[in-house]
Amino acid sequence: MRDILFTDLDGTLLDHYTYRPDPALPALRRLRQAGVLVLPATAKTLAEVVQIGAELGLTDGAIVENGAAIALPPGFPDPVPGGELEVVTVLGLPYEMVRGMLAEAAAEVGARVRGYGDMTEAEVAAETGLSPAEAVRARSRQWSETFVVTDGDPVAVGAALERRGLRAVLGARFLTAMGDHDKGEAARLVLDRLRRDGRAVRSWAVGDAANDAELLAAVDHPMLVRAGHGDWVDIDLPGLVRLDGVGPAGWALIPELMGR
Ligand SMILES: [Mg+2]
Q: Which of 46, 135, 182, 202 could potentially form a cystine with 124 if both were Cys, beta carbons 3.0 to 4.6 Å apart?
């Protein structure tokens, strides 16, 4: 029996405001010592996940850019020491194609947009509050584009993207344009791969926001931490466990729930 836990990063394992995982670190250590596979499933880029993974010892694999790609270490699920994550499955559209369709969508509704690809690293750093090195990694997008609407209606831009078969995810400040994929679809593919040799698998996932709904629906044991505003987001699923803590403080309760 192998346990696998997919975890959202921003607002879940990482604090919504400080981006720190501190309250969750002992729990993360316990799960890893117990042989639980822990895979980030995030909107972040592969470069960002590799950096965070190196800091936290999260090297089992990852779902990046909102399910656009799956990266696994050589030998998954029994990684070779020192192996680096490699993209094994791409569900997303090429970055330049997404950017082209975003430009068309904006033109169609008379809006102006500015994507990470239009900004320098210094501008991305200034817009987001990331350090220059973090901005480089955030900007290294391969299958989705993060953008702001500088003139016009963001909802209309989103609708025009959807008419082109893309998805538009509205964040607090930024929007993201991407192909029609999600974290849940990618998680199912990872689970298929894990079960390929007849192995019994128990699957878990934890998130904090509406964009984790598909991920939570893809596993046996869905869990929600309290979101940055303090409440659980409005998701209803059979067996959903609402962890009583905001972000990483809720995450810290996972080993007990898993019996680890
Ligand atoms: Mg989140």
A: 135
Which residue in 8, 10, 15, 208 is the catalytic one? 8
Q: How many distinct structural domains can be found in the chain? A: 2
Which of residues 151, 178, 205 is at a domain's end? 178
- Gap from CA of 207 to ligand 1 centroid (Å): 6
Known catalytic membership, residue 151: no
Query: How far is the centre of ligand 1, averaged over its atoms, from the C-alpha of 182 (Å)?
Result: 13
Give pTM, 2 decimals.
0.94
- Range 257-260 contact pairs with CB under 8 angstroms and sequence separation of 24 or more: 257/221, 257/223, 258/3, 258/5, 258/31, 258/36, 258/204, 258/221, 260/3, 260/30, 260/31, 260/34, 260/36
Ligand 1 centroid–CA 11 distance in Å is: 4
pLDDT value for 242: 98
